[in-house]
Amino acid sequence: MRRPTDHELELSVAGMLRFGVTAAAIVSIFGGLLYLRQPHLPITRYETFRAGGPGLRTLAGIWHGMVHLDPKSIIQFGLVLLIATPVARVVFCVIGFARQKDRLYVVVSCMVLMVLLYSLSSGVR
Q1: Over the stretch 48-72, which tens digit does the pLDDT of each residue have?
Q2: Is residue 1 part of a domain?
């Protein structure tokens, strides 16, 4: 197995990012269309912020709502895909740099990945 060049790595990362953002947009638009089709929606009051229910705060809750075609869960899953795309990019870069045997970039990318994962996990309550 040969080492990928920098240009090949850039092209594959760009393709992966394009795929992730496109998939997130398609899922969110689908959920938005389902949301707009609901005739029984109450009028939203914007005076105070109300976070989504507990089903929208965990991956298991989002998945459960998606199985039942809940529009809010589908939109939320699109946002999760959008957030996961840069994390996947860093993982992809770690693998690519490891295949290139570029230890410095592997270490830097791993540090970036740890910061990303820490910030994502510390924001979950």
Answers
A1: 777 777 788 888 899 999 999 999 9
A2: no
Longest dimension (CA), the chain: 60
**CA distance linking residue 115 with residue 117, whole number of Å:** 6
Instruction: Give the tens place of pLDDT for each residue, 92-124.
Output: 999 999 999 999 999 999 999 999 999 988 876
Q: Is the pTM of this model over 0.85?
A: no
Cα torsion 90, 75, 54, 123: sign: positive
Split into its structural domains, the chain has a count of: 1
Q: Domain span at residue 33?
A: 6-123
Cβ(92)–Cβ(110) under 8 Å? no
Distance separating alpha carbons of residues 3 and 101, to the nearest angstrom: 8
Whether 25 maps to a domain, the answer reads: yes
Q: Say how far apart CA 15 and CA 89 lie, in whole Å.
A: 10
Q: Which residue has the tokens 């953002």?
A: 21
